[in-house]
Design a protein that fits this description.
3 helices, UDP N-Acetylglucosamine Acyltransferase, domain 1, alpha/beta
Amino acid sequence: MEGKTMEENSQAHILRDLRLAMKRKGMGGLVRDLLLHPGNQAIALYRLYRWLYLKGHLYLAFFGYRLNYFLTGVDIHPDADIGPDFHLDHPQGVLIGRRTKIGRGVRIYSKVSVGAVGLPEENPFLEIKDYVQIIHGAQVGGSCTIGEYAVIAANVVNVNRDVPPYATVVGNMGRIVKINGERVNPDDYKNYKYNPADFHGPPEWHDPSKDEQRWETSWIDPKMYGEGGKNR
């Protein structure tokens, strides 16, 4: 029953991604991005081979997995469970390992590595909650939970423990320096364990009901540039 539910979720994520892309960019923008944007190509291929993986077509799934890496430089294991409205910006070198669950609206940048770390008998599992941002070069690994709207800053290494919602994480060993924009003492969060009660809904700057109206400007959108390719 659980496998069937995951399969249905995978199909729903594919349909939602297509619907969001159509609303934001139209058919022309969708086709253009699938042909020319490596991040969108990587996500589309992942959605396909993830569905094959859940259907039990393992050889086809892992062929798609290796094809994705060859074409886009993105390594997303078919066992990874990624929610809708996922973004890969400048995705070269991104690694998303097995036993990883990623929520809605998460944004990941180049050379980021995320995945559960541990022996099989330890049953490692990594969960990244909704609307988390993981910036260039960060490494998140271990059996831990990254709370909603957290930001993992560039080149952060060894984030291997729970992170509260709204947190900003910087530096070696992933020090938590802000919660919801307010400075905090990193030592107070060394032994933090994720608690759903710490999430109090979207911050003031984000209205999830308007996600479908959000316009994600394409990196090849000619409106971004003036004559000669210079920014206006």
